[in-house]
Write the structure tokens for this entry.
Amino acid sequence: MQETRLDTARIRAARRLIDPMFLDTPLYRCEALEPHLGCALSVKLETANPVRSFKARGTEVVASRLADDGSQAVVCASAGNLGQALAWSGRGRGLDVTVVASRSATRAKLDRIRALGARLELVDGDHEPARQRAAAIARHDGIRLVEDSLDIETCEGAATIGLELVDTVPSFDAVLIALGGGALATGVGHVMKTLAPDVEVICVQPLGAPALTRSWRQRRVVTTGSTDTIADGVAGRYPIPAVLDDLLLVADDAVLVREASIIAGMRMLLDQAGLVVEPSAALGVAAILEDRERFAGRHVATIVCGSNVDMDAYRRWVGSPLHKP
Amino acid sequence: MQETRLDTARIRAARRLIDPMFLDTPLYRCEALEPHLGCALSVKLETANPVRSFKARGTEVVASRLADDGSQAVVCASAGNLGQALAWSGRGRGLDVTVVASRSATRAKLDRIRALGARLELVDGDHEPARQRAAAIARHDGIRLVEDSLDIETCEGAATIGLELVDTVPSFDAVLIALGGGALATGVGHVMKTLAPDVEVICVQPLGAPALTRSWRQRRVVTTGSTDTIADGVAGRYPIPAVLDDLLLVADDAVLVREASIIAGMRMLLDQAGLVVEPSAALGVAAILEDRERFAGRHVATIVCGSNVDMDAYRRWVGSPLHKP
């Protein structure tokens, strides 16, 4: 494999900067789902921690290094999970954290960012204006801007999940990874391709937010004018060139799934596994549902990357028994 | 402390017999619940594993020792979680597992027991006739009967949770433990009283299934004629004398909670923490809700001991936003 921006030794070093609470997360077979999917399914559960997503693995690395350097403040744009994680990691290290988010972001995420003591600034539009505003704040205040997926610490933090996956016995045949900005996919993908190259690395993105998948397919950055998906955590429009370069090296495939499949995946994870997940975390199951033949009889792992949902919306999605399809 | 039937060195040894998948489970603060409870709350999450409850810690010890002794079969009575766990642990070690359960047991639990390859025998009535039938099978077939809470391995397995709790920094002030047959309470209680004696050990049982709590209060076995609770996992009527003796040594208190509080606890764990739990696993939160003054400002830990629910019933319990109290 050509070299990505990631380095396995640095990923191992990053592990030591992360609060152990976020490491060595549950990884287990969900046999109750398997008759519905036609394949063996293992879930890597990244929701059982104080911020209910994998993002703290990256923000722990960022905040830890900032604190060591004597920094006092940090800013990021976020759809919610990165902001919540940065707020948590920053609070524990005495950092002033500012999070810029879209006014239309998931309310539960925004509430938690505030509750964790971060300054929250809301902007109109989607995630892209938030990124611009966060960059402006960083320039004006002379503080560190954390850019998800671009900043190597966010990829290294996510990549620590990969280290835990490759230790699994027996190993699996494919790993399904939610694709948003690309930190999770390039981080975990790098580790798999380095330490377990036989495992197929498949990225999954919503049809309604296909920019990075289209870019991967065309091997050049493709942007989109808008996004239309409930999977708020992966709804970017401007892929980052350096991240695309890495993704081209580590992903075996990138697939797009329909909203109905994401909802069916969320419902199945609730009904058969007792897991509340946010839409992004159901992308893996959605991909299996859309292409059962591809996965038939194989052992597939998927990363359940977050569970931050607005409960009213969640109840609509997963419905009552009367509303089952 | 006078000596219980448990021994800390044996508990540490038991840990080595348990599949690591069931050990070192998540333990974390749920800050989003705290404004609703008036205290700091940490949850010890025993649901993120293949059987969705803590019971496999005990059945791993049982099945491991049986397999070492060359045994080929084992039987237990179960409300569902023990049976599911024994089916899982037995399958991996080539043991024929028979589970006897009440015909009225939670269907999701019965389905999983069957799916895991165990022979399931259903009996009329509640858990007590199932216990009698399992004992009869053991006598007739000359095989090992696993009796939850009486058999020391079930207590030692549960006690390994205690070892993980006492390693927490910072420590907490009280631990709230679901009280059913008593394996969880006496196991975890033994470890707390031995290694962290300042932590208050509080057992929680439903008002509708109060036999062991009443026994603890009266310091003698008190049986009840029936049970009336949705918390199927803790609905016994005949406390075991030896378990009561241990409980009298390790429990600082035993409290009873109303069904409405259990349901409110389940809903709160879903809405604020994204956790699906079965009624028994909400007993700790229910106890806080019923006595906020007692816990105000303290750091309380509770063991989320299982998540096996019938989803139709669960949806009724946690309701829609329109049905919130």
